[in-house]
């Protein structure tokens, strides 16, 4: 996770909601197979999109935050801009599909 930052209940507001650029947050859990599949895809996006901050949030450790953003299944990837949810994608998909659905170029 060289290009991603772990976020949690303690730093979510600072790192995500008050960020000075768009933030992509991967809501995941260690036991989730599709989460492990999408992890490297999220890493690639982090490397290729300098305009984004990319973070990972473990839903097992931060259940209230996950519930607050309507995360009902994982992986869920949410794009935040100016502290607001701009886009949300659930489930594994190839990088090209994920980038397209999130509206990244």
Automatic annotation (TrEMBL):
Q: Name one GO cellular component term.
A: cytoplasm
Q: Name one GO molecular function term.
A: protein-disulfide reductase activity
Q: Identify one Pfam family in the record.
A: Thioredoxin
- The entry's protein name is Thioredoxin
Gene field: trxA
Q: Keyword Secreted, does the record have it?
A: no
PANTHER family from the UniProt entry = GEO12009P1
| Site positions for Deprotonates C-terminal active site Cys | 26
**Alphabetical list of Gene3D superfamilies matching this protein:** Glutaredoxin
Q: Can you give the residue ranges of the Thioredoxin domain?
A: 1-105
Query: Can you tell me which family this protein belongs to?
Result: Belongs to the thioredoxin family.
The record's keywords, sorted A to Z, are: Disulfide bond, Electron transport, Redox-active center, Transport
- What SUPFAM superfamilies does its record include? Thioredoxin-like (SSF52833)
Annotated S-S bridges = 32-35
Task: Name the active site residues.
Answer: 32, 35
Species name for this entry?
Answer: Iocasia fonsfrigidae
Q: Where is this site: Contributes to redox potential value?
A: 33-34
């Amino acid at each position: 996770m060289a290009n991603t930052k772990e976020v949690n209940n303690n730093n979510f507001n600072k790192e995500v909601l008050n960020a000075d650029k768009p933030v992509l947050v991967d809501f995941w859990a260690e036991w989730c197979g599709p989460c492990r599949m999408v992890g490297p895809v999220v890493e690639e996006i982090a490397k290729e999109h300098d305009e984004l901050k990319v973070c990972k949030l473990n839903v097992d450790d931060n259940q209230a935050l996950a519930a607050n953003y309507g995360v009902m299944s994982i992986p869920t990837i949410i794009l935040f801009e100016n502290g607001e949810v701009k886009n949300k994608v659930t489930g594994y998909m190839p990088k090209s599909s994920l980038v397209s659905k999130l509206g990244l170029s």
